[in-house]
Amino acid sequence: MGPANKSQLSPSTFWLMGIPGLEHLHVWIGIPFCSMYMVALMGNVTILAVVRAERSLHEPMFLFLCMLSVTDLVLSTSTLPRMLCLFWMAAHDITFDACLAQMFFIHSFTAMESGFFLAMAIDRYVAICDPLRHATILTHSRIAVMGAVVVLRGVGFFSPHPVLLKQLPYCRTRIIAHTYCEFMAVVKLACLEIGATKRYSLGVAFGIGSCDCFFIAISYVLILRAVFRLPSREASLKALGTCGSHVCVIVVFYSTAGFTFLTHRFGHNVAPRTHILIANMYLLVPPFLNPIVYGVRTKKIRDYVLNTLKLKGSGSC
Question: Where in 60-126 does DSSP place strands (E)?
Answer without folding.
Answer: 93-95
